[in-house]
# Entry
Amino acid sequence: MACLVQLLSGGLIVKQFKTESKKLLDLMINSIYTNQDIFLRELISNASDALDKLRFKQLTDDSARENSTSDKLAIRLSFDKQARTISVEDNGIGMSSAELEKNLGTIAHSDSRDFKQLEEVANSKDANIIGQFGVGFYSAFMVAQKVEVLSRAYGSSDAYLWESDGIEGYTISTAEKEHSGTVITLHLKDNTDDENFDRFLSEWELTQLVHTYSNYVRYPITMMVTKSRELPKPDNAPDDYKPEYEQYQELETLNSMVPIWKRKKSDVKPEEYNEFYKSTFHDFADPLRVASVHAEGTFTYDALLFIPGQAPFDLYSRDYEKGLALYSSNVLIMDKCADLLPDYYMFVRGIVDSADLTLNISRETLQRDAQLRAIAQKLEKKITSELEAMRDTDRAHYEEFFASFGRCLKFGIYSSYGAKAEMLAPLLMYYSCAQKKMLTLHEYVESMKENQKDIYYAFGESRERLESMPMVQSVCAKGYDVLLCTEDVDEFCFQMLHAFEEKSLVNVANAQIDIASDEEKAAAKKASEDNSALLGALKEALGEQVSKVEIAPALKDAPAVLTTEGDVSLEMEKLLNRMPEGGGVKSQRVLQLNSKHHVFDALQQAQSANDTERVALYAKLLYNQALLVEGGTIENPREFAEQISSLM
# Structure
């Protein structure tokens, strides 16, 4: 359907956008693009495509190579503060009048897309076109009230000027241009109370936009920048002479062009990776490990991953944003693509670059497609293998890593309901009560006693308190090791883990039967039968505070300990009750007595004398004492103090 045309004075024809095209253009300028800054990214990408097309023609056409007038393919930026214009110039393939009409007069037409679909281009590795959509050019109207495109096609002596205000239509007129290529000039909009378009008219702002979005475009992006240099000291300068400086203009390349992630790891020095990481991700510490990935095949992509040396202050806050920087053909698309990382690897920083991704119309976000999921799965496996390698070959750094990020791995097991346990559990580490060092679960299993069936662990606020707990000491006295767990997520993690290498995970609070010998079990059973009345009286005195009172078969030195039945331990009870909506959680507490302790003799004497008040007093004292040892809080401290005083 043809465009409407209007004849102006001098024979210049204004070609109006069709009604549907005008609506689409308005939608693109005001709705599709959400960030004004990306207009320069889009124009530079288009310029890079034009250079690629000319480069491809020179590689495949001998006459084009011989007749080339371009000494060096490059992109040139410039701005004029007085005129309030910004220009993006390339010496690429250029466009004829018909191509200007086709590419810029038809909304959403992509000449780059058509070029990529040519058979000779599709089968060549020499064509690396960035553009996917014809709408990228129109992002210029976010900041410009008028856009001029001066272009001369390669091999032609004719040049043409395309002009438009992005509202009604456009004009195409003959013009003069010395060489092939294209110059896009933006006439910026007037400033408003909400928008300051003048900010783009500065060396610093344009340089920052190039560094952020187009730093790795393969061609040099140049701009005249103002610099300062010291003037020579005059021969007759006085003793108190102060150096004088002058400002001068110099053409400077703004982008680095060659992405570090596309270089072979063997060609990059460790200090180069370190500096890139620190400058890109604003960290002052070197990364603990670097992984470089170059994948070809069904999905082609490059990735550079970093394991940080320390956790950012907001890692475990709601404000923290995970994700990898996503590039498409060296052009930044997303600063943090969260879909590339699972939550348990949210600490990983890095970059992924792929030309195969399906982007949305504005290239600002991704479509949720199979390519993205496939890359994410590959990266997950790569991160896991890197952590395993660090664990096995660089133990000091791995322990440093785990101290900062181990919580993420534990949460991954819990949040996946154990689905990720096979992958993440071998990466876990805990402090060994027996060996006094950090161990993996595999190392614990390897060091287990021959007759040991389970992995023993204890939860608490600190290693020191856990080591002094009666139940931990009882298990250690039998020659078994205990893993000391001091993070709130540990118990939730172990509940989902259940077992490791066919060894059940057992809380020391529930390990009395496991560690007791047959003789100790028999003695405990007999003591329970002989003192059934005493145990009943103690239970009656404590009421609903405990679910039962029993004899512990293998308790070492303590007179009594407090354990639990069911899934809620004392530590989990404390944790859940600290949560905003977790108040009122109660565990099923069990008071276990040491029948070999002299305190038990006092209990028997009080029971034999039918001194029910003293039995009740002893019961409450033992219960509160055991509760304190477990790190619990006594409900009535004053009553507890009075009970101790009464015995004194």
User: Anything to note?
Assistant: The chain has a mean pLDDT of 84. The domain at 518-647 is CATH 1.20.120.790 (Four Helix Bundle (Hemerythrin (Met), subunit A)). The CA atoms of residues 114 and 590 lie 76 Å apart.
